Structures are given as C-alpha cells and as structure tokens.
Amino acid sequence: MPFVPTRARVNPDEIQTTPQRRPDWIKVRAPGGETYEWLQSLMRSKSLHTVCEEAMCPNMGECWGSGTATFLMLGDVCTRTCGFCDIKRGQPSPLDWLEPERVAQAVKAMNLKHAVITSVNRDDRKDGGAPIFAMVIQRIRQIHPGCSIEVLIPDFKGSLEALKIVMDARPEILNHNVETVPRLFKQVQPQDNYEWAAATLSNAKKLDPEVLSKSGIMLGLGETMDEVKAVMRDQRSWGVDILTLGQYLQPSKKHLPIARYYTLEEFDELREFGLSIGFKWVESGPLVRSSYRAHEQVRVLSDVHRQLYGANEAN
C-alpha cells in the first residue's frame, strides 16, 4: 500500500487556551495578480515547492505579488510533527540531487537580488540534507552572481559536521528559528531540542563570524513575556544578529490552538527590547514571518557587518 503523507496532529488539551476573536489589526491579503500567477506557474514548471504555500504563510499575497518567494527544498514531506506547521509529515522520498539546479534557474528567471532557501527536516539522513543547501548556494552564485543568499536551515540535530557543510558555502545569512520558549518545546516541536537550536546558532557564528545569523520566535502559544525575553537574551548570547517575532496563526483546528493574540504595543515593546540588548535588526509584528523583508535586512546590514569585521581584523 503506497505511503500517504499526513498533516501534523495535536491534542488541543495539551495547551490550555480560551478561544479568542482575531483582532482587527491582523488582516491577510488574498493571493492574486499577474505576478503571483506567473510565479505560481514558474514553480510548477520546475517541480519546485515554496514554504509560502506549504506553511500557508499569511504574507504570500504580498510577497508573491512583488516577485519574491521562499524556496522549500529536500522535498515537501517533513520527518517531524511540529504542532504549528501545515507541511506534510511522514517518510520522505530520496533526495533529488537535481533540485539545486532547478532552484537556481528559478532564482535567475525571477532576477532576484536576494534568495531565501529553506527545507523540511530530513532526520532520515545523518547529514540532514546539508549538501543540498551547499549545492544550491554554489549554483546560484555561478549562474546569477550578485544575488545574496539566505538559508533557513533545520537544526541537523545539533551536528557540527552538517552545519559546516552549509557554512563552508558562505551564505550571506544563516537562519535557524527557535520558534518557542524552552517550557513549551516538547508540546510545540516534539522531536526538536532547545540545545540543538543553541548549538546550531552559536556554532554558525564560531565557524564564520562574518556570516549574519538570524532566528525567529512565534508568539501566542502560551509563553509569557518574561520567557520570550529570556529566549531573546539567549539568542543574543549565541551571536544572533537578526530576530523576527510574529503572531502564531492556527492553520487548522487540528493544529495547536492560539493561547492569545499579542497587541501591537507588545510587539513594539519586544522590538525595542531586542534592539536594546544588541540585535542589529528586529522585525516584530503580527504577520512577521522569518523571511519577511529579508532583502532589506541583508542590504542594510551586510556592508555594516563587513566594515565592522574588516576594522577588527585591521586592528
């Protein structure tokens, strides 16, 4: 009998919540328009996936309408069962070693100045699929020079060897999302480990201090403001340069419920706190997701970052 991928299933009783009405300030633009349709056709013609579609990103209409997208590699079936995510889960197919070429060709066709590449988790492989990330970085550089590259990677179960494969390819931004606070980790991400996230981000900075590092947190799963700020302090101690903070939105009733909606004032408070403890850039708002305004982040920060490290080396 053929394997049929399924979506993540969670027990709503695991996180205590009170049903809430969605605030007026959370408004999602419906996908559509000529650019959106062209981009959708391009992805299908190259047998590519985007996290925008698979994870039901609320910014898909805005981003696709402006010609930007986050590519999803290593297939479209994840080996983990995170309760917030709508990507299919199960036993994935073997790696497609031609996928990096198709992604690079799509980046060139879109004439991107900044490409964001992510993937499903591939715990079926010891290297977590890291060579595919390295291959796509190298191929984009070959056929579309001048395009900056951001990779949003899995934790590779904390493997330094797998991480080094990616870092040796030298992306402009190395991104790994913590997603939530330690107390909720096993409810939100059952197969993940806070220590793996710490190892991934801190080791990335040790392997190459010049590569900008980035992470993100979802809000509204039952954490407290003090817990969020504690994780932000941890991320800074790991050397994270860029932080994204966004409201968790339940993809379906089968996913984790929303514990509460954060106010715009609370998002502003967290942004100011993040900047005060040393983050170089903080995106904080209800619909902020990991790749939101990523092209602006790399454009503004890369030159400053290189000048800083160049000055340090000169001294």
Would you write up a description of this structure?
The protein is globular, with a radius of gyration of 19 Å. The model is unreliable at 1-16 and 311-315 (pLDDT under 50). The protein is 38% helix and 13% strand. It contains eleven helices and ten strands. The protein has one domain (29-314): TIM Barrel (Alpha-Beta Barrel). By secondary structure, the chain is of the alpha/beta class. The strands form two sheets. Strands 1-2-5-6-7-8-9-10 form an eight-stranded mixed beta sheet, sandwiched between helices. Strands 3-4 form a two-stranded parallel sheet. Helix 4 packs parallel to helix 5, helix 5 (130-143) runs parallel beside helix 6 and helix 6 packs across helix 8 (194-207). The longest helix has 21 residues, at 294-314. Helix 6 (160-167) links the parallel strand 6 and strand 7 (173-175). It has helices at 34-45, 51-54, 60-65, 99-110, 130-143, 160-167, 185-188, 194-207, 225-237, 264-276, 294-314, and strands at 49-50, 70-73, 77-78, 88-89, 114-119, 148-152, 173-175, 212-219, 242-247, 281-284.
Write the layout of secondary structure elements.
Layout: H1 34-45, E1 49-50, H2 51-54, H3 60-65, E2 70-73, E3 77-78, E4 88-89, H4 99-110, E5 114-119, H5 130-143, E6 148-152, H6 160-167, E7 173-175, H7 185-188, H8 194-207, E8 212-219, H9 225-237, E9 242-247, H10 264-276, E10 281-284, H11 294-314
Parallel strand pairs: 2-5, 3-4, 5-6, 6-7, 7-8, 8-9, 9-10
Antiparallel strand pairs: 1-2
